[in-house]
Amino acid sequence: KINDNIEKYSVLRAHMAVERADVCLIMIDASVGITEQDEKIAGIAHDSGKASIIVVNKWDSIEKDNSTTNEFTDKIRTALAYMPYAPILFVSAKTGQRVEKLFPLINEVYANSGRRITTGVLNDLLNEATNRVQPPSDRGRRLKIYYMTQTGVNPPNFVVFVNSAELFHFSYRRYLENCLRETFDFTGTPIKMTV
């Protein structure tokens, strides 16, 4: 029962900390690996629309070979599949290894979260994206995308005006989000899209 209360209190504190934060650093202990608690906190940051960086600490204590970093990165990407936008940084707080890279990355991610794109530039991107991959259709009805505009920042919010929201399939939403990420640097920040 005490453990349950501690768990509830720590999750509540995590919620409050995420709400106050501009950028969330999700710390993972390299010697333990990604835990269920890490996944919960990352989920809270993602659901709150916070810019995030995944920081793997105690990297100096791990036995390494040529593929250790890639294997650990793959494990993180699998466990946190909903956060492909979050950069991963391997550090050691004890030795100071790569810690100096953290603050420029925090500034970059925060700037990306506050980035505004004009409606004209967005619609040029939208025209190019729809010419490359046609919008989906269902039973003879094709999705028509009229225009897109940005309505907010932190995280970037986009509103897409279409002829039928039911035709706007999740995969096409993800395609447009990927086009936005390729064209404009939204590293470290989730993107909210309203149809």
Structure description:
This protein is α/β, with parallel strands linked by helices. Helices cover 43% and strands 19% of the residues. The strands form 3 sheets. Strands 1-2-3 form a 3-stranded parallel β-sheet. The longest helix is centred in the N-terminal third of the chain and has 19 residues, at 2-20. The protein is elongated. The N and C termini lie far apart (44 Å). The mean pLDDT is 91.
Q: What's the structural blueprint in terms of helices and strands?
A:
Layout: H1 2-20, E1 23-29, H2 36-47, E2 51-57, H3 68-79, E3 88-90, H4 102-113, H5 119-132, E4 137-138, E5 141-142, E6 145-152, E7 157-162, H6 170-183, E8 192-194
Parallel strand pairs: 1-2, 2-3, 7-8
Antiparallel strand pairs: 4-5, 6-7
Radius of gyration: 19 Å
Spatial separation of the terminal alpha carbons: 44 Å
* Largest sheet strand order: 1-2-3
How many strands in all? 8
Main sheet record: 3 strands, parallel
Task: Tell me roughly what share of residues is in helical segments.
Answer: 40-55%
Overall mean pLDDT score?
A: 91
Shape: elongated
Low-confidence stretches: none
In brief, what are we looking at here?
With 195 residues, the protein is of the alpha/beta class. Helix content is 43%, strand content 19%. The chain has a three-stranded parallel β-sheet. Strands 6-7-8 form a three-stranded mixed β-sheet.
